[in-house]
Amino acid sequence: MGEHDVDIDVTAVGLSGLMRSLYETGAYYASIVPRCEPGFEEAYWHEIVDPDGNVRDRLGERDQSLADLGTELAYVASLTPGVVLDAGCGVGWFLSALDPRWERHGLELSECAAAHAARFGDVRRGRLEECPFPDAAFDLVFCHHVIEHVPEPTRAVAQLHRVLKPGGKLVLGTPDFDSGAARRYGDRYRLLHDPTHVSLFSNDSMHRFLRDHGFHVDSVDYPFFATRHFTTDTVLRVFDTTGVSPAFYGNFMTFYCTKV
């Protein structure tokens, strides 16, 4: 298959229409127009309002962020330390938690976030589609909830493949816009309400995307039951579809891959 994406107006067909188009066309992802204001990338790393209306201070969320990454960090701890790239490193919380035997590098678009992350490794500013690192430089690339923000995922995944050593590992996390909660809530699906989500994948399409771009999918995790989101209140909220969907099993998917 070729450079597969489908560009459809989400307001015209809805989320279910977008996902149906992936199956009908064999596309890897659905592209939607960014809905954020200029400067949002910098403002995102201070106070933001989530889809439930909660005000969050992103710079104060290190402990929470690392707790949410418990499964991913346990996987990295099982690997022999080498050279790692956090592709879309944000303010550097993942890098800050690594065994110091890892040689740590980061790539980040935001000037504010990159300056903060530089305390934890060699961090460069730039777009994932133009990754400024040499070929076969890394044993591990971590790309956690980044690719859905990237307008050109096909170029981005080619760069991730290029900078990995043969047999190197890729950990890639992204939302599933065809998850059970997405199907139940449709256009009220919470992850559709992030204005920076511009490339929408399904579970099926991400499997195809990674396989077709030089990766073997070793395993896939759907972090929920071991997270702070698994509560009685969250589970009961799925009976009410009048508001924004809750966090739920299958919303997030984490792919553990090997470069082939």
Our measurement of the CA-to-CA distance between the termini, rounded to an integer number of angstroms, reads 18 Å
- Overall pLDDT level: 91
User: Uncertain runs with pLDDT below 50, 5 residues or more?
Assistant: none
Say how many strands there are: 12
Structural class: alpha/beta
Helix-strand sequence: EHEHEEHHEHEHEEHEHEHEHE
CATH architecture annotation name: 3-Layer(aba) Sandwich
Written overview of the protein:
There is one protein chain. With 260 residues, this protein is α/β, with parallel strands linked by helices. It has one domain (61-259): Vaccinia Virus protein VP39 (Rossmann fold), CATH 3.40.50. The protein has helices spanning 10-25, 40-43, 62-68, 70-77, 93-96, 111-117, 153-163, 180-185, 203-212, 232-237, and strands spanning 6-7, 30-31, 47-49, 55-57, 83-87, 103-108, 122-125, 138-144, 164-175, 199-200, 215-221, 252-259. The strands form three sheets. A seven-stranded mixed beta sheet has the order 7-6-5-8-9-12-11. Strand 1, helix 1 and strand 2 form a beta-alpha-beta unit. The protein is globular, with a radius of gyration of 18 Å.
Give the SSE layout.
Layout: E1 6-7, H1 10-25, E2 30-31, H2 40-43, E3 47-49, E4 55-57, H3 62-68, H4 70-77, E5 83-87, H5 93-96, E6 103-108, H6 111-117, E7 122-125, E8 138-144, H7 153-163, E9 164-175, H8 180-185, E10 199-200, H9 203-212, E11 215-221, H10 232-237, E12 252-259
Parallel strand pairs: 1-2, 5-6, 5-8, 6-7, 8-9
Antiparallel strand pairs: 2-10, 3-4, 9-12, 11-12
